């Protein structure tokens, strides 16, 4: 992670500027150019003018997980320094589809899908950002206004040769995979967003570096002071190996129920926990370092993990929900049954255990239910089920699948 010291003699490195730079650098992958950002911070302090910090998100899906909030958490840290965050919804650029990291052309979404996703995105992002210090914009404001003439003039400000230096385009070309002409417009339009917004800093994941640097280039082409670029590392998921992803089922969704969110966070490894603290926690680096020292001195690492789980669960739910989730986790770890579990009434007794699990929404299919039974993951009233041929008579009982799925079933 980029932690290079700034030594430019023409920068007024007051304690406030040094502190702001340290906050900026926390957990980052790269800050480019770091010296320019220090100058912007110093000028902001001297003039009392907040800097304009941009994050663009294409609403390609309605829900976000903790991995998406790494950049949002960095924005919140910069908001707390007094700067203005621009939450840019790429409703126009989503019509193209970001080619970053893609080996094929991304299928376009409809305008209705984009609008529905955008509304959900900001509602969720506002759980991290301070809405009072957030400027919400849509890039259709200026992209629609460009028109054909403006689009041609914009396209003239970058060469095909430079565009083909981009790794994903270069790889697709050499492997004989198609590249649609409209995909070349995506980085140009993302860069033009920075021109329209007069951004001082743009944030993104490590896979967005080409697009972010395009913003610097186009701002210079249009006679503006170029923005700085900050990339954040990708959050490793619950498996401790791959980046957090819904498709890999190693994610914590920010709309997960409080009990589920808390338990998932408690499941991460002790080593991964410290990366999550750096990238997701709002605690200061000094407080995190002190906590890490306590763990190194013999305090139980689970204590630190519980604190992190409660902080994150509180952020997306409430302090009361986080406390209840902690108690629920304690009950489950002792083999107890959570207080609030779904109650389901079913008919058809006697009913086979596989069909029962499916009808109770504890397994997607009878075959999957049988697989869970083979793995010892199914319990009835606390007792492990080993017989896939078991038929249950009429009555009331608690079904449990794994550590987190429960249902109180009344079978008639």
Provide a short characterization of the protein structure.
ATP binds at residue 246. InterPro entries: aa-tRNA-synth_I_CS, aa-tRNA-synth_Ic, Rossmann-like_a/b/a_fold, S4_RNA-bd, S4_RNA-bd_sf, Tyr-tRNA-ligase, Tyr-tRNA-ligase_bac-type, Tyr-tRNA-ligase_bac_2. By secondary structure, the chain is an alpha/beta fold.
Please tell me about this protein's structure.
InterPro entries: aa-tRNA-synth_I_CS, aa-tRNA-synth_Ic, Rossmann-like_a/b/a_fold, S4_RNA-bd, S4_RNA-bd_sf, Tyr-tRNA-ligase, Tyr-tRNA-ligase_bac-type, Tyr-tRNA-ligase_bac_2. This is Tyrosine--tRNA ligase. Pfam families: S4, tRNA-synt_1b. The protein is an alpha/beta fold and 412 residues long. It folds into 3 domains: 15-232, 3-Layer(aba) Sandwich (Rossmann fold), CATH 3.40.50.620; 258-333, Tyrosyl-Transfer RNA Synthetase (Orthogonal Bundle); 343-411, Roll (Structural Genomics Hypothetical 15.5 Kd Protein In mrcA-pckA Intergenic Region, Chain A). Helix content is 46%, strand content 14%. It has helices at residues 15-25, 34-47, 69-79, 111-125, 140-155, 160-163, 167-174, 181-197, 209-221, 258-266, 270-280, 285-296, 301-316, 319-333, 353-359, 366-374; strands spanning 30-32, 52-57, 84-89, 134-138, 201-205, 228-232, 343-346, 351-352, 378-380, 383-384, 391-392, 395-401, 405-411. The strands form 3 sheets. It has a 6-stranded mixed sheet, sandwiched between helices. Helix 5 (140-155) packs across helix 8, helix 10 (258-266) runs antiparallel to helix 13 (301-316) and helix 11 packs parallel to helix 13 (301-316). It is globular, with a radius of gyration of 25 Å. The termini are far apart.
């Amino acid at each position: 992670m980029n932690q290079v010291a700034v030594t430019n003699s023409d920068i007024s490195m007051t304690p406030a500027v040094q502190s702001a730079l340290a906050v900026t650098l926390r957990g980052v992958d790269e800050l480019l150019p770091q010296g320019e950002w220090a100058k912007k911070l110093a000028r902001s302090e001297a003039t009392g003018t907040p800097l304009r910090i941009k994050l663009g998100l294409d609403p390609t899906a309605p829900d976000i997980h903790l991995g998406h909030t790494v950049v949002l958490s960095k924005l919140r840290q910069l908001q707390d320094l007094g700067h203005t965050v621009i939450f840019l919804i790429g409703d126009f650029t989503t019509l193209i589809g970001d080619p970053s990291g893609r080996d094929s052309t991304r299928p376009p979404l409809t305008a209705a899908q984009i609008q529905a996703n955008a509304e959900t995105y900001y509602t969720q992002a506002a759980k991290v950002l301070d809405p009072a210090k957030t400027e919400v914009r849509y890039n259709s404001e200026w992209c629609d206004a460009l028109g054909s003439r403006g689009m041609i003039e914009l396209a003239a400000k970058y060469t095909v040769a430079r565009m083909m230096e981009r790794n994903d385009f270069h790889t697709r070309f050499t492997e004989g995979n198609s590249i649609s002409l409209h995909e070349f417009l995506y980085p140009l339009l993302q860069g033009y967003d920075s021109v329209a917004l007069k951004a001082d800093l743009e944030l993104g994941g490590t896979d967005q570096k080409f697009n972010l640097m395009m913003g610097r280039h186009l701002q210079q082409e249009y006679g503006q002071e170029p923005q700085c670029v900050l990339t954040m590392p990708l959050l490793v998921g619950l498996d401790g190996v791959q980046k957090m992803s819904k498709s890999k089922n190693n994610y914590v969704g920010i709309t997960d129920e409080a009990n589920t969110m808390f338990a998932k966070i408690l499941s991460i490894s002790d080593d991964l926990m410290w990366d999550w603290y750096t990238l997701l926690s709002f605690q200061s680096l000094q407080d995190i370092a002190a906590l890490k020292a306590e763990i190194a001195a013999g305090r139980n690492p689970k204590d630190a993990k519980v604190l992190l789980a409660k902080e994150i669960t509180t952020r997306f739910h409430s302090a009361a929900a986080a406390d209840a989730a902690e108690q629920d986790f304690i009950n489950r770890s002792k083999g107890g049954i959570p207080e609030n579990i779904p109650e389901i009434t079913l008919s058809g007794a006697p009913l086979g255990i596989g069909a029962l699990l499916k009808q109770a929404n504890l397994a997607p299919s009878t075959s999957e239910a049988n697989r869970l039974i083979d793995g010892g993951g199914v319990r009835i009233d606390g007792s492990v089920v080993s017989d896939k041929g078991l038929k249950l008579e009429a009555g009331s009982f608690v079904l449990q699948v794994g550590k987190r799925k429960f249902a109180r079933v009344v079978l008639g």
